[in-house]
Design goal:
With about 180 residues, the chain is mainly β. The chain has no helices and 15 strands. The chain is globular and about 50 Å long.
């Protein structure tokens, strides 16, 4: 997304318009520094259900904010705030939704933690699960990046010590490290 002055902009296709048009994100949506945004990418759903435009932002206020686009006002509004980190949130990744019954967001923080946020339905609250990185519930170093697989079922976590771990939710709903790689 390119930045224009005090706005971020992207191209979006409106259901009421045939051509793509710029969609502007006012930078005042984060009163403090912004590190990362991640869009909710719908997929695998029913054609009769409306597409909801959303993104999550992460920054140095230690929070993750969920934003939704209102077609009637053509404005982005803050819908929810996810509070769980004690230091800057360095990355946020919204898992691809390919017909999964839940929404997943992963966040990486300067506080050496990764949180997987889970939402069971549109009106349900977000539930947080802190991944156990093996160092008193934290990772060995700052967690810089999180990234979901294309299917949205495996989470890659990259830390400042050069280690990358892969995580998967087991059948009991617990997150397990399934692979580990060192730089």
């Amino acid at each position: 997304m390119p930045s224009h002055g005090h706005q971020l902009s992207s191209l979006a296709r409106s259901s009421s318009r045939k051509a793509a048009r710029p969609v502007r994100f006012p930078l005042h949506f984060r009163s403090v520094c912004l590190f990362e945004i991640s869009a909710a990418v719908p997929g695998g759903g029913s054609a009769s259900l409306p597409t909801v435009k959303r993104f999550a932002s992460a920054g140095c206020d230690n929070l993750v904010k969920i934003w939704g686009f209102r077609e009637d006002t053509e404005k982005w509004v803050e819908e929810e705030v996810l509070d769980g980190h004690t230091d800057w949130v360095r990355d946020v990744a919204w898992a691809p939704n390919i017909g999964l019954p839940r929404s997943y967001i992963a966040t990486a923080s300067q506080d050496k933690t990764v949180i997987v946020w889970t939402k069971d339905s549109q009106n349900a609250p977000w539930h947080k699960t802190v991944l156990d990185g093996g160092h008193n519930g934290k990772f060995a170093d700052v967690v810089w990046r999180v990234s979901w697989s294309l299917a949205g079922n495996i989470l890659a976590v990259s830390c400042g010590d050069g280690k990358v771990t892969l995580w998967k939710e087991n059948l009991r709903g617990a997150w397990e490290c399934v692979s580990e790689m060192n730089a």
